[in-house]
Amino acid sequence: MSHTTSAQFTVGKLDAGMAMLLTEDYQLIEFPSVLLPKGVVLGSVVNIDVGRDRGAEQRQRNEFRELQEQILVDFGTKQPKAPVIRVGHTTQTWTVLEWEPLDLAAAELRSLHLYRDGQRMMQSMPSSLEVANSVLAIKTSGLDVDHEYEFKIEMRTSAGTLFSNAVTIRTHSLENLSGVCVCFGECESQEEIENMKETVKRIGASWTDRVSMNVTHFIARYKAGPGCEAALRYNIPIVKPDWLLACEANGKLQPAIKYYLD
């Protein structure tokens, strides 16, 4: 702290919040009464010392400079990155689009939109960054068989709008069963399930033990069990084993509606 200056005052008026101090040359100064010593009354003489604290000034400058630098790092140098998408599972009528975790830096996510062949789609998309970075994928359906499409994602943020890379997919023909992915539920026996797995291999399809958005059909003889409940939640067709046999016999994908499990 630098040199301190001292001045003497006489209390001329004393209120609850403010005191009027009179200098030796009869100048009036307003002063917060809370800073006066206890017991001061009208007519009391007080000495007030005033000094400059250069150390405190330097600390405040340093703290302010550090704050500015941190703001620059958080908001000036880090910018949201464009989404990066890729093609996931594809079938005759739908495809799964996956993306890397979204990096918004310090920005806020406003909305996500799916574009197909340059047209914005009425596709349900994650509404928050937390959800988007949790699911990391969407299924878009209603596509034509054996048809090529281009997809991209628009990401609107508080820092601007960014578009992802564009990806091209081609839906499968009816004869291409490689996109078929089945999950098995309650059947007559484990032997029946093993036989169906062999059929799946012969037609070039795949099977899984867990229901997910990549599953195209849930095969079972009885509507029971957690797998069946999950299939209903995902809106996956629940079909009889006869559907799989029909696909093999005809050499192409068969309509599921004829084989729905009642």
Automatic annotation (TrEMBL):
Record GO terms (molecular function):
protein dimerization activity
CDD domains registered for this protein in UniProt: Chs5_N, FN3
Say which domain of life the source belongs to: Eukaryota
PROSITE patterns associated with the record: BRCT (PS50172)
Q: Name one GO cellular component term.
A: exomer complex
Pfam families hit by this protein = CHS5_N, fn3_2, PTCB-BRCT
InterPro entries assigned: BRCT_dom, BRCT_dom_sf, Chs5_N, CHS_Export/Cell_Fusion_Reg, Fn3_2, FN3_dom, Ig-like_fold
Residue ranges occupied by any BRCT domain in the UniProt entry: 172-261
Among the GO biological process terms of this entry, one is: conjugation with cellular fusion
Report what the protein is called: BRCT domain-containing protein
Q: What is the species of this protein? A: Coemansia pectinata
